Request: fold
Amino acid sequence: QLWCQLFVFLQNVDKWKNGMKLNTPVDFPQSRFGLSYEDRIMVLGSCFAACAGQNLAERGFDVLVNPFGTLYNPASVASCIERLENGEHFTPEDCVQLGAGSTKVGSFHHHTLAAKDSVEEFLQSANIALDRAREFWDSCNVIIVTLGTSWCYRHRERDIIVANCLKRNACEFERFFLGRERTVELLEAMVSKGRKVVFTVSPIRHLADGAHGNNLSKANLLLGIDEVVSGHPDVAEYFPAYEIMMDELRDYRFYAEDMIHPSAQAENYIFERFIDWALSPSEQEKYRLNDKAFRRSRHIPML
Reply:
């Protein structure tokens, strides 16, 4: 088996030498406005947003990531931004006990990881985080928004779109598809805040509705983003994280064991493509120095 693998490898090397492409490169122009170490960057959205935001923070950028936890759909991101704008504190009326036998308390505006052991503890934690996030929001000049799905859940009794169902009974919720017009409305509101906005679509597939349903969901997000970016080229841009995963990394060796989430290697590759796209040459030099310092601090080999 080892000899077979070696034979295939040598064949591929020979093809590469002869100019044969072994993947589909995703080409796209450099960022129009780019990022700088002078920026204050709010990162909102799906698990991929959290990954990119953490990487930026570890390399010295001034970043705040998902103050309410992971968000998946445009409506939940828009609700988070509205709360950051008005600074309205969470109250006992917002509190909900988690399902699946848990005694922890959270809210439909937060991810389950924000839940605490009591109403008092949750409200204290949530409102401290809100105050800090609002202070950051007031001075930030860049938003990075990563959208994961067009599917939303509305809590029937409260009549609100939830950020997370908190493991509660499915009969409490109405599941619906956020159409293109409503998606555009929500994204338009995000680019009207006087900040630069970078939109991305998460490369993580949501397969509860099957492969076709996932593609419809992603297509709706892509169409909505394209319309908004085309209408606001001076403040809004799109980075093709989804396309890089689907085309350049179209191989299951770039996926985690669940065959849905990108592997750490894939996440790092897409982030490096993002850095190449977003940073000017002068900023890239500072990034490389910060990256080396971070790797040394974590004893990560520098290849």
In short: The chain is about 45% helix and 15% strand. Strands lie at 40-45, 62-65, 95-97, 105-107, 142-147, 151-155, 160-161, 173-177, 196-201, 236-238. The chain has a mean pLDDT of 90.
